[in-house]
Amino acid sequence: MDIKQHPTLSYKKNKLHLSGTCIHSITKELKTPFYLYNVEALERNFLNFSNCANDHNIFEPLVCFALKSNPNLNLLKSLKRLGAGADIVSGGELKQALKAKISPMKIVFSGVGKTEEEITLALNSHPQGIYSFNVESVEELEMIAKVSKKLNKVARVALRLNPQVNVKTHKHISTGGKSHKFGILKSDIEGILKNKKLLKNVLLVGLSIHIGSQLTCLKATEKALKELSNLALACDQDLEFLDVGGGLGVPYHPDEPLSSIDEYMSLVSTTIEKYYTSKKGSHQRQPRIVFEPGRYIVANTGVLVTSVIRTKSSEENKFIIVDGGMNDFVRSSLYGAYHHVLPLNKRSGVLKASHVVGPICETADSFASNRELPPIKTNDRICIGDVGAYGFSMSSIYNMREKIKEYVIDKEGVLISHK
Ligand SMILES: *Cc1c(COP(=O)(O)O)cnc(C)c1O
Predict the structure, then answer these.
(1) Which of 62, 166, 236, 256 is deepest in the core (most CB within 10 A)?
(2) Residues paired with residue 417 on neighbouring β-strands, in sequence order
(3) Domain residues for 229?
């Protein structure tokens, strides 16, 4: 329950606030469960990120928000106004980014399974297509070249390096190891660079990496950036950009040891300078740096509000059964992730260890085990914290439950609903 240091959640007079707005007052008429986001927090996170890149003299930073973390249109429109681009992984996300009026020249397309249809859609979204297809295999490069030729276009491509680093995060969200499906091994990229036939009908504009998500330590990032720089140096052409991916972790648990945004930007800046820019010579054009953050921008902007259906005691086990389930928010079940569980109106009384569970017929349908909570009764509303990233976007209709609503508190503190 320790949220004293939390950037967006706080209690004032025992009422829970999200970035300064009382959650109970603004949502008491709404049917639970639902997601609630605050634009104020979103903008603060984005500006923190991009201002920090500027503070570290990163060259022409382009911050492409990873849509898969949260594709909510109202949030995307706010990010677009602040200059954000988009990192997309499907045709659906491309359409959503375009709907938010994000320029195709600020869109990078990642993912190992881009289809011919999706590649066509992306190439047709602008005379020059999109800013970059981040290519994940030789076979994909061949398909992009084929589609480009057919459409009489030249696709802008970056090769995604698999830097063969092992990351300290949950195994499901580590993406930079040799056995992972992502990226191209260094030797294969060198093969592509030598075989000019493979680069017909496409324009090689950059190199990219993305080694995983919820990264809490920067050791692997440093190694990957070094690999990326070395490879860039080996290209016998100037590159427009280096894309360093996303993955910066957030403190879901107050004791989580985390690198700061400042340490991260400093590492990106110094590593690329040391292993690439300084060796290239000053007459060369500096590459722009592209970032693909998702979680860092959006995780702490959202909560899941859910009501207690009933409590249940089973010998020493105390259950709090809520109307939100793992289909609405899956991170706790899928990754065993810690998330704050907080009553909207905090009652006084002794703390009791309880299991907070949903109604889904799966033992994994649990938001917290043995969590020390103040007294909680039927019909109380509680919220799961830090669910802005990989919350609604990973939700499903398992158990034939409808997708729940999302609400946004706009900059004026007014509640807006979408859909
Ligand atoms: C998921 C993903 C991201 C975003 O990761 P976060 O951990 O949310 O920052 C960025 N780039 C690619 C290629 C991704 O797959």
Answers:
(1) 62
(2) 407
(3) 61-293
In whole angstroms, what is the distance from residue 42 CA to residue 325 CA? 25
Phi–psi pair at 231, nearest 5 degrees? -70, -40
**Per-residue pLDDT tens over the stretch 394-419:** 999 999 999 999 999 999 999 998 65
Go through the chain and tell me how many residues it has.
Answer: 419
How many CB atoms neighbour CB 402 within 10 A? 8
* CA–CA distance, 119 with 135 (Å, rounded to integer): 11
Residues 396 and 251 in one domain: no
The strand ranges marked E within 28-97 are 34-38, 62-66, 85-88
Strand partners, 202: 155
For residues 326-348, give the mean pLDDT.
97
Give me ligand 1 centre to Cα 60, in Å: 20
Could you tell me the distance, in angstroms and rounded to a whole number, from the CA of residue 246 to the centre of ligand 1? 5
CATH of the domain at 33: 2.40.37.10
Please check whether residue 81 lies inside any domain of the structure. yes
Dihedral angle over CA of 19, 322, 213, 402, nearest 10: -100
**DSSP H/E element including 222:** helix 219-234
Q: What is the 67 CA–ligand 1 centroid distance (Å)?
A: 9
Query: Which are the catalytic amino acids?
Result: 361
Looking at the fold, whether 317 and 279 belong to one and the same domain comes out as no
The alpha helices in 235-386, defined as continuous H runs, are 261-272, 278-280, 295-298, 331-335
Running DSSP on this structure, what letter comes out for residue 14? T
Centre of ligand 1 to C-alpha 102, Å, is 18
pLDDT digits (tens, 9 = 90+) for 126-165: 999 999 999 999 999 999 999 999 999 999 999 999 999 9
Domain count within the chain: 2
**Which residues have C-beta atoms less than 6 Å from ligand 1?**
66, 68-69, 87, 110, 210, 213, 245-248, 292-296, 389
- Does a structural domain hold residue 46? no
Q: ω before 33 within 30° of 0 (cis)?
A: yes
Whose tokens are 């389930």? That residue is 325
Q: Which residue, by CA, sits nearest to atom 10 of ligand 1?
A: 246
Q: What is the pLDDT of residue 178?
A: 83
Residue that terminates a domain, selected from 259, 293, 327: 293
| Ligand 1 pocket mutation, candidates 69, 136, 216, 292, criterion most atoms within 8 A of CB | 292
